Structures are given as C-alpha cells and as structure tokens.
C-alpha cells in the first residue's frame, strides 16, 4: 500500500479533512493527520527485496473526546475494508493542551512493494 493509497482510504472516511504532516493554519476541526513513523526495508540474502514495512501514525482531532473517537471509528472502518488490510494497533486517547483539542491516535502497519515509499 503506497502513501497515495493510504491517503485515498483516509480521505474516503473524512473527505477533505485529511492532512500530512500537520493541518494548515486555521483549519477547523474535526480533521485527520497522518505521517510515516518508520519504514523498514525487507532484506534477503540477495539484498533488498523491494518490500517495505511502513509504520504510520494517524491522529483524529476534534473539540470533544467523543467526536475524535467517532471520527477514528470511521477511519478504522475504511482501513478494515481495504485490500490488503493494514494492521491497526496501539489506539489511545490524548488531549492537546496547546490547541485544546481532543486527539484519538492509532498506529497502522502497511506493506509497500514499490520500493518508493516517501513521506
């Protein structure tokens, strides 16, 4: 799954409300942010296997904890409907003091066989 594929999935859940790596100044919530955290190349005895394991962080921001959670549920439903289905883990709720926004975060693992993962 490429970054473009991931963006399309996220945008299907929250149309026009998906940004990377931060939301533009003045963006009204709710919105979703995603970014790559780690890209691990797969190597064999013959070298690079043209397959990368990509770890993403996806954050749902909203004024209330319930809204942030509900929006993340939409995102997770879209991710679970994808083929191939990514792994979704480490879900947690946070509060951003600086912005006074509630945040729901998950980590997502995908595989990219293009060998061209870019952030």
From TrEMBL:
It comes from the Bacteria. InterPro entries: Gp17-like, Viral_Tail_Comp_sf. It holds the Pfam family Tail_completion_gp17. This is DUF3168 domain-containing protein. It comes from Caballeronia pedi. The lineage of its organism: Bacteria, Pseudomonadati, Pseudomonadota, Betaproteobacteria, Burkholderiales.
């Amino acid at each position: 799954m490429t970054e473009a594929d991931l963006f399309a999935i996220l945008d299907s859940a929250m149309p026009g409300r998906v940004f990377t790596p931060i939301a533009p100044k003045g963006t009204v919530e709710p919105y979703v942010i995603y970014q790559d955290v780690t890209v691990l190349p797969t190597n064999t005895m013959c070298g690079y296997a043209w397959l990368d394991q990509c770890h993403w962080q996806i954050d749902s921001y909203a004024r209330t904890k319930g809204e942030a959670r509900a929006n993340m549920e939409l995102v997770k439903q879209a991710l679970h409907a994808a083929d191939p289905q990514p792994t979704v883990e480490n879900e947690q709720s946070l509060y951003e003091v600086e912005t006074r926004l509630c945040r729901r975060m998950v980590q997502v693992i995908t595989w990219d066989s293009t060998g061209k993962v870019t952030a």
